[in-house]
Write a structure and sequence with these properties.
Largest sheet: 6 strands, parallel
Oligomer: single chain
Strand order of the largest sheet: 5-4-1-9-10-11
Number of helices: 13
Distance between the termini: 37 Å
Order of helices and strands: HHHHEHEEHHHHEHEEEEHEHEEH
Shape: elongated
Strand content: 5-15%
Mean pLDDT: 82
Number of strands: 11
Helix content: 25-40%
Radius of gyration: 21 Å
């Protein structure tokens, strides 16, 4: 994989949890700043490494001729259904030296995290994607901070579920044995950290980090409320009026001589994913010998490309989800059901670990 790029986010807004909103975006909205995601996919298609589920295509593209040259390869992949043989997966798992686990909305859903998706996907009168943008924050920072204050307070009442715990326990156990488990998440709730996972690569940032609009300083912030002016604010009821908090009373930077306005350190619509994190993710994916895709829709770029690219180089990929995704047929395994039920059994200590 090529590294050092900055990807503009498209699809679900600042995470794939909370649980995110929307679903598919037009291909023209999923672009990188310096190189388009489409070009990266095109290169993979032409080399026969990547096949793109046809559900992503909206209009014929210039890649059609390239696709024809790999038609037989794509058809063979789609005709071969993924296995649900847990024993076969466990045998591969027992021998893996470097496991990458990619997680999305489905993991946090089982902790009761509220959703802003579908017909009921509103906070007050607004859909979340109307608030999760730099423009919305510039126009009305008080309203946006009320929205994120509400989300932070809700998340403080939620706890990690068996899927979070299984991943954390697996990571700790295998690392003691000299094996590596890397966790990459699209979620911004920090439930993985609270479950005990270490060195979590958060693609879309965190609800519990802030970034200064003036000096750029990023810091963890778990205060409740995050500032006095937001105490008791943020009610989601559509009849609730905006608090209209003066900007000077909103969360401010605590760095010496700064006092700049803080914003949530999450990736909003129209913003780029952190290139350093992306580079680390790509390096881990390039060297792993087993990949798990847990509770993710596989429609949010660039994350939607990660596991198919791993599978394309012959590495086993196992998907754990409540439903099939556009990428399911690319993978060796698919385990259907709640992640909190399927994942603990899959990641439990193998008999070989006790020898």
């Amino acid at each position: 994989m090529q590294t050092g790029r900055r990807y503009r986010k498209g699809g679900l807004y600042d995470d794939e949890m909370m649980l995110g909103i929307g679903g598919r975006t037009r291909a023209s909205d999923r672009r990188e700043e310096s190189f388009s995601t489409e070009n990266k996919i095109s290169k993979g298609i032409c080399e026969g490494r990547i096949s793109i589920p046809f559900s992503f295509q909206t209009t014929p593209s210039r890649h059609d001729l390239s696709r024809k040259s790999t038609t037989s390869q794509q058809q063979s992949r789609y005709m071969s259904r993924p296995s649900s043989d847990l024993a076969a997966f466990r045998d591969i798992f027992s021998k893996a030296k470097h496991v990458v686990i990619l997680t999305g909305a489905g993991v946090s859903a089982e902790s009761g995290v509220p959703t802003f998706r579908g017909a009921g996907g509103y906070w007050r009168k607004w859909q979340a994607q109307q608030l999760a943008t730099p423009e919305a924050f510039s126009r009305n920072p008080s309203r946006v901070w009320e929205f994120y204050h509400y989300r932070r307070e809700v998340m403080l009442t939620k706890t990690p579920n068996p899927a979070h715990q299984a991943i954390a326990e697996c990571q700790e156990r295998l690392c003691r044995k000299g094996r590596k488990v890397t966790l990459v998440t699209q979620n911004i709730d920090e439930l993985h950290r609270r479950a005990g996972s270490k060195d979590v690569l958060e693609l879309h940032g965190s609800l519990f980090k802030t970034r200064c609009m003036s000096c750029g300083h990023v810091s963890a912030n778990h205060k409740s409320p995050i500032c006095a002016a937001l105490e008791g604010k943020g009610a989601p009821d559509p009849n609730t009026d905006d608090a209209k908090i003066p900007v000077n009373d909103l969360p401010r930077c605590q760095e010496a001589d700064c006092r700049g306005l803080l914003r949530p350190a999450v990736v909003w619509f129209g913003e780029s994913l952190d290139s350093d994190i992306l580079q680390r993710v790509e390096e881990e994916l390039d060297s792993c010998d087993l990949c798990l895709v847990v509770g993710t829709s596989s429609i949010v770029y660039p994350a939607a490309m990660f596991a198919p690219q791993v599978a394309a180089r012959g590495v086993p990929v196992a998907e754990f989800n409540m439903e099939h995704t556009p990428a399911t047929m690319e993978f060796q395994f698919h385990f259907h059901g709640p992640c909190g039920t399927t994942l603990p059994a899959a990641l439990a200590p193998h008999l070989s670990e006790t020898k």
